[in-house]
């Protein structure tokens, strides 16, 4: 069983580590992590340990049950040659990224016919 003072101490420590990690990420361009760590009196291994612990703490805050949305596929979509979309202004309404580095931006004013799914 974890006591209340140790939980508070752990939260304070994680907050301090998160601030250090943010500071490292805002380091001057061209400075590597090892140099930043040396200037801030921590080892590179300790920095990555703290980074891992902060990430784990953040992941614990995310609900465990993922939500899925079913997207219906059209039975048949005629083949068309790819066309360029006009440049959209402003921030996307929805941005989807995958691990392969592919991202999709959907804007508020994007025509519905451009959002059709296609069977491959």
From TrEMBL:
It comes from the Bacteria. This is IS66 family insertion sequence element accessory protein TnpB.
